[in-house]
Amino acid sequence: MKTAHKTLSIGLVVSACFFANHFVHADTIYVSNFGDGTILKFDSSGNASPFASGLNQPMGLAFDGNGNLYVANYGDGMILKFDSSGTPSLFANTGYSFLSDIAFDTGGNLYVAIGTTSIAKLDSSGNLVAFTSGFSQLFGLAVDHNDNLYVANGGNNTITKFDSSGNVSVFATLNGPSALGFGNDGYLYANSRFGDTILKFDSTGSGSTFASGLGLGAGLDLAFDTSDNLYVASFAYQGVVKLDADRNPALFAPGFSGPHFIAVQ
Predict the structure, then answer these.
(1) Contact, 234 vs 241, CB < 8 A?
(2) What angle do CA 146, 150, 154 make, to 5 degrees?
(3) pLDDT tens, 2-60?
């Protein structure tokens, strides 16, 4: 199935934008579809195919260092592991409800957002090794190459940083942060849950506007491919919006029932 690219508005009408991906890359974009219990995958041209079905309200997606895709089920607290052939296995039964975002560090530990207030840390065998709470409307998670964990606290308009030793600090402020993700440039990108602005932050927490006036509505995730195209889950469009390297937006993948999280391989 080839999806039609539709032009979006970013403050003024953007005339017909069609995107050409760099031919040497073969990125695959995975998207969790909360409403119908599926994960779809897309090639860089927007051609869709099913990856998994029968899931219990899938949310967070993350790849480990070996190319296995992990999926957090909001509905039953299970984290599933899919190998490169798409075969699933149970990675962990967390015993918690309402799992959302997940993110790996370089040691293979998996951070799991639970509800909107807590985070669990699981080792590479799925065992619980740490748990922390007290967040305010927790949404997105992201881990940098130095194993610093970043947490979007939508309720108090901050992004919290945990360094690899567990020290906590306020990294940056943003109105209702939700989605977090690192670009190929090493900057942390964050989307407001009000859907209008994406900011980029350097390593000191200094922010600048990357894109604004997008009208994406609430969304929980964003991810870059290797050609610096940015994919954002959009509730307003019930699909995935793609911003090319020049920040031109278009509807990349429509027709979802609650698009939540994105992983790029």
Answers:
(1) yes
(2) 170
(3) 333 333 333 322 222 322 333 344 699 999 999 999 999 999 999 999 999 999 999 99
CA dist 189 and 89 (Å) reads 32
**Helix or strand holding residue 121 (H, E):** strand 118-122
Name 234's bridge partners. 239
What pTM did the predictor assign? 0.89
Cα distance between residue 244 and residue 246, in whole Å: 5
124 vs 63: CA distance, rounded Å: 12
Residues 221 and 29 sit within 8 Å (Cβ to Cβ): no
Residue pair 153/126 in contact by the 8 Å Cβ criterion: no
Q: How far is CA 199 from CA 55, 57, 202, in A?
A: 32, 29, 10
Structure tokens at 223: 């991810």
Percent helix / strand / coil, the chain, rounded to 5: 0, 50, 50
Residue 133 CA to residue 8 CA, distance in Å, equals 38
Return the residue matching tokens 């039953």. Answer: 76
